[in-house]
Amino acid sequence: xxxxxxxxxxxxxxxxxxxxxxxxxxxxxxxxxxxxxxxxxxxxxxxxxxxxxxxxxxxxxxxxxxxxxxxxxxxxxxxxxxxxxxxxxxxxxxxxxxxxxxxxxxxxxxxxxxxxxxxxxxxxxxxxxxxxxxxxxxxxxxxxxxxxxxxxxxxxxxxxxxxxxxxxxxxxxxxxxxxxxxxxxxxxxxxxxxxxxxxxxxxxxxxxxxxxxxxxxxxxxxxxxxxxxxxxxxxxxxxxxxxxxxxxxxxxxxxxxxxxxxxxxxxxxx
Length: 270
Hints:
This protein is mainly beta. The protein has one domain (27-264): Acetoacetate decarboxylase-like, CATH 2.40.400. Helix content is 13%, strand content 50%. Strands 1, 2, 3, 4, 5, 6, 7, 8, 9, 10, 13, 14 and 15 form a 13-stranded mixed β-sheet that branches. It is globular and about 60 Å long.
């Protein structure tokens, strides 16, 4: 008879064996990131945040990450795009600030499952292109069922000063993200588990560049408005993000380095 070992970490299906928690760090040796940020409507953004969280400032970050030579993929790779807001958690014991991801699209199922089930990261699937380069312009896009819904572009990147690089290196040492672990009740409605979490990460930067750029949302065709049983409402997610007011955009930043995702140090906030 299978009985889970309480000292091991399991993934579904668990009866084929678990792993020791200390082996659950993810090491990404080659990470390239693009970050697009803008100010928006604070009330609108605050309405996304669950109980216990509050908005730090009315700012949205759209981040693309190209992750290569990943230990948990045996040297493989994947891409992700996340939409984040700066948030503060005020609990009985925990008082901390971090980025709160509203959505994370990834093009590989393995990191999606681990991040959703264990760490409460709002991950869903999308086709995400590798970062392309032509005539001093970097660009990529994300699509669903053959329909491009987001395009990202950066033009004329210039390296930051040494002082700015050192400041960025220090800030990247604590690239933590909040999470919200919602496990729906079998048969519904409601949830069997709701937990606020924090997911520690650390990035070692080797370079940072600043440039111009833009992001462009495209709504999915009307056919995707129909929500099927157990389906993820891609149409509504993209529509809400695409209609966020854009008051002021900041310069686009690009960074390179390595990343450690410390799943073994994730914890429930109290």
